[in-house]
């Protein structure tokens, strides 16, 4: 509008904007500026005038703006949605079991209530010493059931909630405290914002991960190149340090110089001179930034951009180029070009860069492109992004002629994109291929190993990325997302119309169904557009696909689609974990059962919205396998134990009521009952938070063991039935032994009650001890100290004359028969439990048991398919063998045909590196074909 | 239009880097016992070996106890009369003479118990019907609310109130051996704690058994509650429907084959509810009265432990099972994900 800089802060006006909504494609508002700037003229403001939250501004030092929406009213804030309160599977199971116990309690109350009323009418009325009135009040029939309700109310342990909250808090603290999850670079510790869902970490079945910034560092670095047949950077892994290349630059080898020139100027990068002399490059694409940086590293420094004139500083001499036209990159063309004029010589050049399939076919007829395509192949095997660079000198006439057409196409109103593409193609031919540049979007440390380990643990991975398909697949391959070829297979779903998508979907489904019985690792790849159609029109088919497929790569998806996919998996009853680092992952993170945020380059939005935030992706392994697994195991024990102890005391009350005229007398006094739940039984089990069934190392080596947690093997109705049975058995043991050894002249109420109570406490201590896998000093203190504390507390209470149980405990402790009774209870109660446990442990061992035994025998054993050789293979140099392999382009347009004869052969073992690369090359090439053909 | 929180790196977190300690890293040294055959079998054998002698000791102690049990409720009532009417009447003569033979020498002190069967002292209505505060302190005389329905008579508080006291057992026994009276020591039959604390020495019975319904025994209003030891014993309610309560002690030895004549005042109404009344004379040992349960229990459990241990040894010999064999880890053959 042409307002002076000085006047900016004096601008007054009014913006009429709609109510906040979440549509990021629309913004229809009006702006009125007050005089003297504009006389109440209404200027329309559209989405083009807006900056959305969490956007980055590049290529400008400043911008003026007005905040229209803030906080949660921003478009992003509105899309974020309201996070639902999260309930872990374990909690849900505990709730279910509580419900079952509640029903059981009601049944008990009903049965005993009816029995009590019958007994009262038949027997109790004869007991003159009870003086039942002949005619009671109207609610008389309810009195006995209600008494039993009171008596049985301890059946549902209230203490479980308190104990669980305590231990969950501690699980979260353990995560916060964990030194092994501190990102040393930024010294960011892991943090558990949600303290309530640690158990779910151990039950994760699906991990939905963002790509950029989550799996990768989000830093592109130029690593290798192949210039006219010569490979640079292969030996040391970094072309910039390759002496051959440095020498070639020094000797001004023309191919190399051209290559560098294309790297430096075939882009839309804007250099910004900073005050200290360094140059900051601002680029839309990080690839371009990487190339420009690399060129600068090789003394071809892109210094300045004045309008269309570019200043290149090469070995202290300045070369100027004028950019005449920019043939922009589109995802269809997969290449971009610039037409430049060398200001010195006035010559015109076309400089192009792009994907190999977009550049190599345009090569001049005479040129051999085989070395380049081999280079592309080799680099992509290494997980590098490749760009082919090419150039051509243009004749003045040719350019002038073309320039007119280009201008015309640019101003076309109909089919402009298509026409521009067509015009561009007229110029981009007979290119001289200069070479291939390989750029690494470096994976974060340990990503392939982490994914490999977690996949072995039975966790399925879905990659949801806003990035384009090729990049997504590249990264998926390089980080073990998909197994190498004989085992792994990629199926593409695409199409622009409903029918195409349907056909594609059906074909993939068919393949999936056939291969689902085989030990194959099939992944599907879908883009956002097809996903939209699939979710809307073919929801059922897509659901089936989601159920069948363990791996999926979804590219070009929007934040809300990410959330939709999470929702889809959740509706299939899967436990989902979403991990991401940026604002666009927030919804997915909130939607999933567990949201993990990476506090990385893209800010802390994801980390703030997440339940857990970690510094690097690789910590996910430890978060799930160590913290999640331990939390699950511990909670499984703690919750069932809580039920066990409450049921135990309740069963005893029920038994006692059977011999007390079904009248609802409580055997225990109220103090003991309260202390039973609060002190005597809750302390030992709380220390269970330190229990470790297997060492962290063993779990890391055998991630498959997580299966026990995922499938909920340690807390389910049948394990609960075991605990239920145990409490019934123990109640019978305690009760029968006590009433027989304390019969007749000893059957005093207070005494018997304390004998029974101490019998229960002794059993508790031994049950906890038997179920504890690793005893630290704290556990010993808690278990045995608690037993001692029980006596100390009761001695103290017995010493108080005002208490009901005055002198009782002292009397008991003096009786030999008391101690004899206790030992009898312990042995009779624990003997069968120990025998059964030993039998199972030895003859029906679970995998956990075997690993414990192995651990004890001296060092964990290595299972087959250890991940070590593979991960190392990545760092190793490509063996020359694999390069000279004839191209194994097995065309797999129809996925069904791709069953290679050696499909069963394992790719692990001694020959791993070679085998691995070969197979991967076949995979990458096969889907490259897929991409093209589809 | 906030642009980029990326620059605000988590500098605040730097200080929060966790400190190392073995507890926070969950690295406390731990011992991980595993159930090896050796450990388990040894445990069972050890328990068995310890338990059987203890069982034998307890059993022999219980066997040494000499006990005479005589059920008299049926015989002490004329068979031609209606039982409840007989026992409730004031006019009937309820004296009853029984003779007991001493099977073995009984060393003093010989404890005299009365045993009631099918008497629910643990019934909720009954157990609750007492006021401990009232029993302790004369000032709390009026605290009779828990005592319903035996709380007040003519709106005057009953001391001691409640069903428990009201139903006080009131049969009496007189013993003689060959014409010589055996003195019964009724001192110190109640718990010291009850005498010294629970029942006040200044609390005297008041309005006791004055109501329309007469329950059990009466109390001498001149003697404070703390010295009414029969009441104290009775008010230690029994947890089981069949119980014995101490009546007194005979402080002299009873020789074998002596005949003891017991004169029973059969006052207490156990007929209405089909209860049984028994008189028990018993000696005692370190384990208490005659109760073979613990001894038998120990021997049974000890035997079972040895049996289990043997079974495990046999199983181990027949079918040894290598521990921690990796071949059982069949991840690859049978991927757990399916």
TrEMBL record, chain A:
The keyword Chloroplast does not apply. It comes from Coffea arabica. It catalyses: ATP + H2O + phospholipidSide 1 = ADP + phosphate + phospholipidSide 2. It comes from the Eukaryota. Its EC number is 7.6.2.1. It is an enzyme of class 7 (translocase). It is found in: Membrane. InterPro entries: ATPase_P-typ_cyto_dom_N, ATPase_P-typ_P_site, ATPase_P-typ_TM_dom_sf, HAD-like_sf, HAD_sf, P-type_ATPase_IV, P_typ_ATPase, P_typ_ATPase_c. NCBIfam families: ATPase-Plipid, ATPase_P-type. The chain crosses the membrane at residues 97-119, 647-667, 673-690, 723-742, 754-770, 777-797, 817-839. Residues 607-846 form the P-type ATPase C-terminal domain. Keywords: ATP-binding, Magnesium, Membrane, Metal-binding, Nucleotide-binding, Translocase, Transmembrane, Transmembrane helix. The keyword Secreted does not apply. This is Phospholipid-transporting ATPase. It is a multi-pass membrane protein. Belongs to the cation transport ATPase (P-type) (TC 3.A.3) family. Type IV subfamily.
From TrEMBL, chain B:
Belongs to the CDC50/LEM3 family. Pfam families: CDC50. GO terms for cellular component: endoplasmic reticulum; Golgi apparatus; plasma membrane. This is ALA-interacting subunit. InterPro entries: CDC50/LEM3_fam. It comes from the Eukaryota. The chain crosses the membrane at residues 34-57, 296-318. It comes from Coffea canephora. Keywords: Membrane, Transmembrane, Transmembrane helix. It is found in: Membrane.
